[in-house]
Amino acid sequence: MRYSGFKVLKEALTGHKGWKPAWRDPAPKPHYDILVIGGGGHGLATAYYLAKVFGKANVAVLEKGWIGGGNVGRNTTIIRSNYLLDGNEPFYEFSMKLWEGLEQDFNFNAMVSQRGVLNLCHTDAQRDAFRRRGNAMRLNGVDAELLDTEGVRRMAPFLNFENARFPIKGGLLQPRGGTVRHDAVAWGYARGADMRGVDIIQNCEVTGFRIENGICKGVETTRGFIGAGKVGVAVAGSSGRVMAKAGMRLPIESHVLQAFVSEGLKPLLPGVITYGAGHFYVSQSDKGGLVFGGDIDGYNSYAQRGNLPVVEDVCEGGMSLMPMIGRAKLLRMWGGIMDMSMDGSPIIDRTDTERLYFNGGWCYGGFKATPASGWAFAHLLATGNPHETATAYRFDRFRKGLMIDEKGMGAQPNLH
Ligand SMILES: Cc1cc2nc3c(=O)[nH]c(=O)nc-3n(C[C@H](O)[C@H](O)[C@H](O)COP(=O)(O)OP(=O)(O)OC[C@H]3O[C@@H](n4cnc5c(N)ncnc54)[C@H](O)[C@@H]3O)c2cc1C
Question: What's the pTM value of the predicted model, to 2 decimals?
Fold first, then answer.
């Protein structure tokens, strides 16, 4: 069933009796050509592009809970491609281009909203770094504008420009950046994959891998053994735990990241505003809530809830940037688990076990990568070769010292 304005009108006039479930609820088959573990954004996008671009229909996505219950439905929805390094910038711009055509592509309203992403700077040195990053973006054909203090003031006059510790000296604006309704991304990809024959199997936890003579033959699950020609793992915050079942120790630590939403307010923010020095980022949802977040919790954890010192820290960051935010009531907050890689960049690669592939290490920036990650992982699973924009995302970069250290701050997950 295709969605359209005409269909919405027809259903509105006929009691909404014609809507069907957007994806099936199939029982697992004994064997698939390709199994994708993890029904988050990356796993579902992988299955979608496997079917759509690479013509692989005998595919299943295995999800231990419900699709959209992980980080894909827990993030602060920011999309951008304002990266500096060669290993990253073409990949994230590929993702941005896919976001721009996504809703037409999978015929689902994901509310892609390119309202702009503004990174504020507070020192002359930071402005120089932003100029360099903006120039690198432009060399890669990406939009970037360097604003001075007055330019920022015109966009967001309510900011605290004279904060003694972090005075606002300007900002780097990516006008094509913005936000996307996060859970709709999971639903849109799920529906598109299902329409092309992919089985999406929820409540099916992978509990082990069947590996014989170094070859992965399938997975043990809470619904029995499922055989596979190839297995792709895309379980985000559970990367370390799941790959341990295949005997792999990853260069990854898991941390909680929290998000916050205020009560609905009148339109206030021009787009996304980020304040790196205080580690605070904020946008406004279409319902009016201020959606904001800050730094990861400082200890390793698999609990999907955060601690109060970070709540205080994020709220202090918000207040010092936008004093008026203190008058808004906080409606909800929650946490998700981040698989923090040691250089802050992801991994999309084969493993030492034949026919077992891995996608992870997205840290707290993987939502914007969802379309490109899905496409690149599908490319790797279907062809055996990395996608041209993801050639740097190899495991062996940690052994060879070829880190993609985007922030240039050293290999400490708690500094990402
Ligand atoms: C608070 C917060 C804010 C964020 N803000 C942003 C942002 O603004 N912009 C941005 O780009 N990124 C952001 N991120 C990061 C981004 O959300 C993640 O990097 C990205 O969503 C991870 O990929 P995913 O969607 O596939 O993960 P998930 O949705 O977590 O998918 C993984 C799935 O694997 C399943 N799974 C785990 N173990 C098993 C198993 N054994 N068997 C079967 N299934 C299993 C899980 O249930 C889960 O559904 C944020 C994250 C959080 C938590």
Answer: 0.96
